TrEMBL record:
Residues 338-356 have a biased composition (Basic and acidic residues). The chain crosses the membrane at residues 12-33, 40-58, 70-99, 111-131, 137-154. Its cofactor is [4Fe-4S] cluster. This is Oxygen sensor histidine kinase NreB. It is found in: Cytoplasm. It comes from the Bacteria. Keywords: 4Fe-4S, Cytoplasm, Iron, Iron-sulfur, Kinase, Membrane, Metal-binding, Transferase, Transmembrane, Transmembrane helix, Two-component regulatory system. The keyword Cell inner membrane does not apply. It catalyses: ATP + protein L-histidine = ADP + protein N-phospho-L-histidine. GO terms for cellular component: cytoplasm; membrane. Coiled coil: none annotated.
Length: 394
């Protein structure tokens, strides 16, 4: 229960308990003032003391309908009923007892109890008045009905509010768990893209160079050593890339300065081998400096696309074309390799092999920037990949 609601309930309980003892004391004083020498006076005093003692025990037993609580409530009602029979003025104590019964019992049991208490109170007041007073006949039931209705409605509203709060807390907990899962998946996807576009490319180049060095070690040791030194340089760059993408930093080629075009030339130079020639072309000039996320995405797309060309296309030439328009920037990667069916994303020669992460990673990068990817290819006819990213208006 929220703290403000708990304070309100405590205040209402204190008021009702105080009202009960005030009414009980007033009823005893009234009876003694009029019937001090009556034959029932000792019984009235004893029952009043017993009722007060029983009522004091109520808070100790709690408010839930346990067997001890129900026994206590039965004894309180019985003591009050005997007092009403002996002294009708004690009927006014029924009002706080309404509250006690409604707090202790569920509505289906509390409402009949309130009805019984009301009937006893009306009968006592009518016997005290000596004639069928319409006010005494109708007023107590009306008060009991209003008090019971208000209390039951407030309880039901509180129950619905508690249920709503529980639903909100549960929904917030589920939302937090979903956000954590989505964050974990997004980070895994980012790492997968970076590994494919940066580390996998470097490892592949190192493998090719080391294999070539192994073949030439005896016949052309100088060339073999050059291959080993180049592989070591690539390993050093790959290590720097790994450190950068773990911290989600700018790619090393961009961090060295010179912008996207220089970085593309550096990538093309590294990817150029005796078996594959990579060229870079530019068309147009961007309307303004590109943002870091756009430059990083285009560079990673170029790296990933060239890695696919090297691993799967068996191409002899590949071209990176950067086209700058007023509202978008487009990177085209074309090759003269074996091609594939874009609907299956599987090259004929690679059928049955696991699909790579290249195209899904490129699409994921573009989706984050509102871009689009177009792939045109056919078996034996090469591949053309076009990545377009919209530019923010200046």
């Amino acid at each position: 229960m929220p703290e403000p609601e708990r304070d309100d309930t405590r205040a209402l309980t204190v008021v009702m308990h105080t009202a009960f003892f005030v009414l009980l004391a007033a009823s005893v004083a009234r009876y003694l003032a009029r019937h001090a020498d009556g034959p029932h006076t000792p019984w009235v005093i004893a029952l009043s003391a017993l009722l007060a003692a029983l009522y004091v025990l109520g808070p100790v037993l709690g408010t839930r309908p346990s067997p001890r609580r129900l026994t206590w409530l039965g004894l309180v009602v019985a003591a009050w009923a005997l007092l009403v029979v002996l002294a009708p003025s004690f009927a006014w104590c029924a009002v706080p007892l309404f509250y006690t019964g409604l707090r202790t019992l569920p509505p289906r049991a509390a409402i009949p109890l309130v009805a019984v208490l009301t009937v006893l109170a009306v009968a006592a007041q009518l016997s005290l008045a000596g004639w069928p007073d319409p006010n005494l006949l109708l007023a107590p039931p009306a008060v009991a009905a209003v008090a019971t209705t208000v209390f039951v409605v407030m309880q039901r509203q509180a129950a619905r509010r508690d249920a709503l709060i529980d639903d909100l807390v549960r929904t917030r907990r589920d939302l937090a768990a979903t956000e954590r899962r989505e964050g974990t998946l997004a980070e895994r996807e980012r790492l997968a893209r970076e590994i494919h576009d940066a580390l996998a490319q470097g490892l592949s180049s190192q493998r090719m160079l080391l294999q070539a060095a192994d073949r030439l070690w005896d016949t052309a040791p100088d060339t073999a050593r050059d291959h080993v030194r180049t592989a070591a340089a690539i390993a050093e760059r790959s290590l720097a890339e790994a450190r950068r993408f773990v911290h989600d930093l700018t790619p090393a080629d961009l961090a060295e300065g010179g912008g996207l075009l220089r970085a593309l030339h550096a990538v093309a130079e590294r990817e150029t081998t005796p078996a594959l020639t990579v060229r870079v072309h530019t068309e147009g000039t961007p309307p303004g400096p590109l943002s870091a996320p756009v430059e990083s995405a285009l560079l990673r797309i170029a790296q990933g696309a060239l890695a696919n060309v090297r691993e799967h296309a068996a191409a002899t030439t590949a071209t990176l074309t950067l086209t700058c328009l007023d509202d978008q920037i487009v990177l085209d990667v074309t090759d003269d390799g074996r091609g594939f069916d874009p609907r299956t994303r599987t090259a004929p020669e690679a059928a049955g092999e696991p699909r790579g992460h290249g195209l899904p990673a490129i699409r994921a990068r573009l989706r984050q920037l509102g871009g689009t990817l177009t792939v045109e290819s056919a078996p034996g006819e090469g591949t053309a990949l076009s990545a377009a990213i919209p530019l923010e208006p200046r």
